[in-house]
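Message: A physicist's question: would you kindly supply an amino acid chain plus fold tokens?
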Amino acid sequence: MTSVAIIPARGGSKRIPRKNVKAFFGKPMIAWSIEAALRSGCFERIIVSTDDEEIAAVAREYGAETPFMRPADLSDDYTGTIPVIQHAVEWLASTGVPVSRVCCLYATAPFVSSDDLIRGQELLVGERCSYAFSVTSYAFPIQRAIRIKDDGRIAMFSPEHFQTRSQDLEEAWHDAGQFYWGMAEAWREGRPIFSEDAVPVILPRHRVQDIDTPEDWDRAEWLFRAMREQGAS
């Protein structure tokens, strides 16, 4: 059975311009994801889906393929992950490549571990599910969350839990935004990722950081530097 990594990396990032190829600890950001995929040994092919020639060149330099350029209608601010992976899977099928498992690996995931990619594939196969994707826990009980109303005052989302001890509240989890293993037919059919036919690949919170804003980028650098200095994993 053939496993393929697809790394979506469009060129039009606005909040952090050129973030997919911006230098992060001595390498273009996308290089960290490519190298983790290579180290994992999970993939027969590692493909970067991009609309940008510079990103494509960097991807090839670090060992990925760019056998097609992503069409413009899948490269705007509103295109979701599933259509991008669908396009890549259908392109592979059109070339006669029999793909069974596809891992969507984000280009801005410098904390991704090859061991976690391996675990994800093992869970996907072992649990016979549509998807296995990275998650981590919320640091604070979501049941105690508050909102700021239009008048500037505070209200709880779940006021019935005001008196509930934190240790008595159910732990909550969120998408870690690193990778999504899926069966090829699940991607092609557009099955939802967040469903009962998915299993979690649990990551520690210190290895999870969205990188969507300059503040996110700074925090990622602080975390990455601290991990290197302490030899954490």
